[in-house]
Design a protein that fits this description.
10 helices, Rossmann fold, single chain
């Protein structure tokens, strides 16, 4: 839950920018929220505040009913899964697929002298990779750097969800992929979220993806939440309808070429 969160960059200077102003989001268990807005709307700032990348000036952030507002980023990692826009982030390119999965699987555990991957772990990784439907289960020892962008992003998704995080953060995780690959990764995302009942916050610039995926859509403008749509209302939503609602509430036209042309 995000409660009354405020964030200002460069306060008391000529470059002062209010990024978030009294933002409130109550996330129910299993919610898959798509978060959209124009440039500078505050969506990435909100995600980074939840992740602990940025501290907040005021307000409270709760994850699974625990107050993490003052916890540094690395201490939130135990309850968070995160996938970035760049497919090169989130994995170790010079390590094998199964080694990357082992790092994710053992996150938060005490490390001893024994590093070897057990037979049981290997079977688990093979089973999870097979579920992706990309043929990676037969390439356990391949270096991750040899994978395509889509394969790597799918692997990163699997790594982020392997330990069933309390909250999954997706930061425009298909923006760097071609349209066909992006749709495949989104299908995998939807399946992983539903299969594991993961509470998820997905930042996207693509209006159609924001409408199609998830059970709830939040739209931001100038650091505030201006729309929060779910259920049957979201299912009936269209891009044109969303633009009209944005215009009525903000008094402006939606100005973001990436969102409109996607």
């Amino acid at each position: 839950m995000v409660k009354d969160v405020c964030k200002t960059f460069h306060p008391n200077t000529v470059n002062e920018q209010i990024a978030l102003y009294n933002v409130n989001v109550r996330m129910r268990e299993g919610d898959f929220i798509t978060l959209i807005g124009g440039n500078g709307a505050g969506k990435s700032t909100l995600l980074n505040c939840v992740a602990g990348v940025y501290g907040v000036d005021r307000g409270t952030i709760l994850i699974d009913n625990s107050d993490v507002t003052r916890l540094p980023e690395h201490k939130r990692a135990a309850v968070l899964g995160r996938v970035f826009q760049d497919p090169m982030m989130g994995t170790a390119a010079n390590m094998g697929i199964e080694e990357n999965l082992a790092l994710a699987y053992r996150r938060g555990l005490r490390r001893g002298l024994k590093w070897g991957i057990t037979r049981r772990e290997r079977e688990l990784y093979r089973e999870q990779l097979k579920w992706l439907g990309l043929g990676l289960e037969d390439r356990l020892n391949d270096k991750v750097g040899l994978l395509s962008g889509g394969q790597r992003q799918a692997l990163t998704l699997l790594m982020a969800t392997l330990k069933k995080p309390k909250l999954l953060l997706l930061d425009e995780h298909t923006a760097a992929l071609d349209p066909k690959t992006a749709q495949k990764v989104l299908e995998i995302t939807e399946r992983l979220v539903k299969e594991n009942n993961l509470t998820t916050l997905m930042v996207t610039h693509n209006m159609r993806d924001a409408i199609k995926h998830g059970n709830r859509l939040i739209m931001m403008h100038e650091g505030r939440i201006i729309l929060d749509i779910e259920g049957e209302e979201k299912k009936k939503l269209t891009v044109e309808g969303l633009l009209r609602r944005f215009g009525r509430i903000s008094g402006e036209e939606f100005a973001n070429d990436r969102a409109l042309l996607s």
